[in-house]
Amino acid sequence: MNNYQNHTKSASSKVKKEIAERVNVLLAKMSLEEKVAQLAQISGADFVPGPDAEEVLRKTGAGSLLWLNDTKRFNELQKIAIDESPSGIPVLFALDVIHGYRTIFPVPLAMASSWDPEVAVKSQAIAAKEARAAGIHWTFGPMIDIARDARWGRIVEGAGEDPYLGSAMAAAQVRGFQGEDISDPERVVACAKHFAGYGAAEGGRDYDEVFLSETELRNTYLPPFKAAVEAGVGTFMSAYMDLNHVPASASRWLLREVLREEWGFEGFVVSDAMAVGNLVVQGHARDNRDAAQRALVAGMNMDMAANAYTENLADLVNDGTLSMDLIDEMVRPILTIKAQMGLFENPYVDEGLLDEVVSRPEHKQTSRWAAQRSMVLLRNEDNLLPLSDKLKHVAVIGPVADSMAATEGSWMVFGHKPAAVTVLQGIKDKLSGAKVTFAPGPAIRRDFPSFFEEMFPESKIPEQTPAEIKAAFTEAVATAKDAELIIMVLGENADMAGEAASRGSLDLPGKQEELLKAVCALGKPVVLVLLNGRPLSINWASENVPAILEAWEPGTEGGHAVADILFGDVNPGGKLPVCFPRNGNHAPMYYGHTLSHQPEGHPQYSSRYWDSPTTPLYPFGYGLSYASFEFSNLTLSAAQIAAGKSLTVTAEVKNTSKVAGDEVVQLYIHQKWGTDSRPIRELKGFERVTLQPGESKTVRFELGEKELTYWSTNAGKWIQDTAAFDVWVGSDSQATLHAEFEVVA
Ligand code: NOJ
User: Fold this and answer.
1) Is 22 within the bounds of a domain?
2) Residue 68 Cα, ligand 1 centroid: separation in angstroms?
3) Of 322, 357, 378, which closes a domain?
C-alpha cells in the first residue's frame, strides 16, 4: 500500500521502567538549583550574552548548551559538568543541523520535492552521523511547519503546503535523525518545531501573529507534529508567535492538552530562542519572573537562552508560588532523554572521529542522489533537454551560478564554510572538453540586511554602484552572445529565504529578469536553472524560456546534480510540494482550499481577482520528466463502504516514452458534502515509481477511516461523515482520472 505509514518504535517497558527508576534516584539527590539548571539551555556563543558556561556547569550543571560548534570544547565543558557539578549530570549539546552538518543536503523544501521519504531518511541519517561525530547530541530539526504563503522565508525549511506530504516527510526526518532508537550512538535526538502554526504568519511576515481556527490547526497544521510524535521524536520546540492571541510558548492548550494529553508525547519541550523572555515583549507576562512562571505552568520544559528559568524558578518555588512537584515533572523528561540516549555512559566524543566520518564517500554520493531526486523540471519545450554532451561552447550566466552559499542554501550550521560544487563547476566537470564561459551579471542583495550578515560578516555581499551594475549586465550579455547555448542560473541568495527572510514580492530579485530577457533576445537556446528557497512567480520565463529546472538549494553536490539532469544522465522526477503563485500578492495560495459559492469560472460574479488569474502558475504536485506517462484503469474495490471500513484504489501508470523515468503517482480525494465543507482536493496517498520504456505498474492505495476522518467545526470533534467522495489518481493536483464512492451508515 502506498499511503504514508508511520512506524512507532519505543523502548521496551522494562527499559522504560529502569530509566524511570534511575531518574527518580537522581531527582531525589538533586537540589532545587540543580533541577532548575536542567531546565535551562544556555548560550555557547558570544553573540547572545549569557552566563559563563563553565561557571554554570561547575556550580549546578545545565540541561543543555547551544550555539557552540567545537568538538574539543564540548569535551572540556562536558568534563566540568561531570566531574565538578554536584550531581555530575552530562550536558546535551544542541545545534541547528537542518539539512546536513558538513555534507550539506538539499534544503527540506527540496527534499519534499522528491516525494520520496527515503531521501529524507538517508540524508538526515548522514547529517546525524556527522553531527554526532562532532559531539552534537541534539538537533533543532525537523522543521515541519506547513507553509502556504511563499512570502514567508521559512517555507524553505519545511515540506511545503500539504499536511499529508508534510506528515510523511516529518516522520521520515525523525527516523533519519534518531534511527530506530535514540540510544543509537550514531544518531542525534530530533526536535519537531515550531509548535504550532508558525507557517501561517500574517502577511507571510516572519514572527508575525497567527490566527488559525482549531479546525484549520487540526486538519492542516498539526498533522506533521502528530506524525513526529508517532515516529518517536524526542523533543519539541515551541513557536515564537502569538497563536490566536496566546504566545505559542505559553499555550497550555498546545503544550499540555494536545501534545501530552491527546498525543501522549513523553519527551520534552524547549522554547524557541529567548521565547520565554519574549512573553514580556509580546505583552503576555509582566516581567521575566511572570514569564518563567507562565511558560512552566503551560508545560514548557526548557528555556532556550532567555535565562528566565534560572533567574526565577528557584524563588518561585521558595515563596510557594510553584511546587517542587511541578519542577520535578518538568525535569523528568529531560533526564529521561539523557538516560535513553546513553549520555551517562558515553558523554564524550572521540575527537578524531569527525574527519573520518565526513570523508566517507557515501556522504557525497547520497547528497548528489538526494539533489537529483529533489529537482523539478518545470518546462521543456520541444525537448530542449536533455542537452547533448557534444556542445562546444556553453555560457553559464547568473549571480548564483557560482555561489557556494546559494548552492548550499539557508540554515548553515554555525561556523560552517560553504564548500559546494556550484552549477558552473558541475557543468565544467560534465563538459570537460568544451568551452564553458561564465559571467555573474549584477549581484543580488537584500534591501534590508539579514541579521546573519551581522553575525557572519564574511557572508556579506557588497553593494554595487549603478556603473558596476551596468558593466556586469553588459558583460553577461556579451558572454552569452558568443556561446552556442546559454544556461542561466538565477534565483535567490542563501539569506533571501529562511529565518527573518520574508519578502513581499515573489519575483526574481534584482536585475535578473531583465538580464534573462536580454539574453533570450539573443535568439540562442536558453535553459533556466533556478536556485531558490521558495516558489518564485516566474511568469515571463514560464512563457518564454523553453527549459526550466527548479533545483532549489541543492547542497554540497548541487552543481553535479544539476549537470546530471541537464545532460540526461539522470531523468528528473521531482514534484512541487507547493503551488507557484503568479504573484506574491496571491499568497497564501494552496490547492486544498474549499469551494466558494461562485468559484473561478462561474459565468457571473466569479469571486476571484479581475486583473489576473488566481490559478497557480504551477500547481501542487507538478513536475515533468524526459519520459511521458499515461494513467488508466482507476478501480475501486467497492462503490460503497460502511463508515469505519476501507476500500482499495488501484490505478495503472505506463511509461509511454522511449526512456526510463520516474513518475509520482498521486491520489486525491474530495468529500462532496458533509457536516463541514471540505477541501476541493486532498492528497491521501503517493508513490514514486521508476518505469522502463513501455513498462506499466499498478499502484494500490487504501482509503479508510484514517484518510476520511477530519476535525469538524460544526461537530467540534473528529468525525467521519456518510457522504460521496471523488477520487483522482494522476501526476499532480490537477489529475483528471476520476472515480467516485460513497460512505454509508
Ligand atoms: C531560532 C529559530 O526560530 C529556531 O528555528 C532555531 O532552532 C533556534 N533559533 C536556535 O538556533
Assistant:
1) no
2) 13
3) 322
pLDDT digits (tens, 9 = 90+) for 416-466: 899 999 999 999 999 999 999 999 999 999 999 887 777 777 778 889 999
Q: Answer with the one of 526, 559, 586 that is the final residue of a domain.
A: 586
Residue from 626, 630, 631, 602 nearest 614 by CA: 602
Ligand 1, atom 1, residue with closest C-alpha: 273
pLDDT top residue among 320 and 50: 320
Distance separating alpha carbons of residues 449 and 457, to the nearest angstrom: 11
Which of 41, 189, 249, 272 has most ligand 1 atoms within 8 Å of its beta carbon, as the pocket-test mutant? 272
Strand partners, 628: none
116 part of the active site: no
In 3D, which of 325, 345, 374 has the Cα closest to residue 106? 374
Residue 42 counted as domain residue: no
- Minimal-distance CA residue to ligand 1 atom 3: 272
The CATH number assigned to the domain holding 443 equals 3.40.50.1700
**Beta partners for residue 698, in sequence order:** 652
H-run or E-run covering 466: helix 466-481
User: Does the CB atom of residue 145 touch ligand 1 within 6 A?
Assistant: no
140 lines ligand 1 (CB under 6 A): yes
What CATH code is carried by the domain that includes residue 703?
A: 2.60.40.10
The pTM assigned to this predicted structure is: 0.97
Report, as an integer, the average pLDDT of 677-697: 98
Sign for the pseudo-dihedral over CA of 545, 548, 553, 559: negative
Domain CATH number, residue 174: 3.20.20.300
**Ligand 1 pocket mutation pick from 41, 42, 64, 96 by most atoms within 8 angstroms of CB:** 96
The answer to whether the CB of 499 is under 6 A from ligand 1 is yes
**Which atom belonging to ligand 1 lies closest to the Cα atom of 143?**
5
Which of the residues 272, 303, 564, 662 is marked catalytic?
272
Q: Exposed, middle or buried by CB within 10 Å (0-12, 13-18, 19+), for 19?
A: middle
Note the pLDDT tens digit of each residue in 584-623.
Answer: 999 999 999 998 877 777 766 776 788 888 899 999 999 9
In testing the pocket of ligand 1, which one of 43, 93, 97, 140 has its CB within 8 Å of the most ligand atoms? 140
* Structural domain that includes position 703: 629-744
